[in-house]
Specification:
By secondary structure, the chain is mainly alpha-helical. About 55% of the residues lie in helices and about 0% in strands.
Length: about 140
């Protein structure tokens, strides 16, 4: 495998473990031009005019317009669905009672579904039930 730079150096117990910096006095013209260009760029960014707060607020307000339109449209659609659902879910009390349902053909042969007669008043239904229960009690007693 690769060996680290410490392993390649001859171990000298007298040498300290610090790096020595050798100054490089000669700079090429290209290096000087690059350094000068970088410094000019830093100076130009430092004196760059800041964007006024009013402009930022106007930009924010303009960007907020489509967001507000979309959000309010969504809320309006949800409200419309609620209103329409509430209109169809409740039947008004002014409407007449629906006609008696027509007996449908049974889906299973031999199955009879008993439905109480809605034309009788509730008290008449109770009387009818009590008379039937008395008849069944009499027939069981005999």
């Amino acid at each position: 495998m690769t060996s680290s730079s410490e392993e390649r150096l001859p171990s000298d117990s007298a040498a300290p473990h610090t790096a020595r910096i050798i100054p490089f006095d000669r700079q090429s013209e290209l290096q000087r031009a690059v350094q000068q260009r970088a410094q000019e760029r830093l100076d130009a960014e430092a004196i760059k005019p800041k964007v006024p707060i009013a402009r930022r607020l106007i930009t924010f307000a303009v960007a907020l317009i489509p967001v507000t339109i979309i959000f309010s449209g969504f809320l309006l659609a949800v409200h419309a669905v609620r209103v329409i659902t509430s209109l169809y879910a409740t039947t008004p009390a002014t409407q007449a009672a629906p006609p008696a349902p027509v007996a449908e053909a049974p889906s299973q042969p031999g199955v009879v579904i008993l439905v109480p007669d809605k034309t009788l008043a509730p008290s008449a239904q109770e009387e009818d039930l009590t008379q039937r229960s008395r008849r069944t009690q009499r027939s069981e007693a005999e």
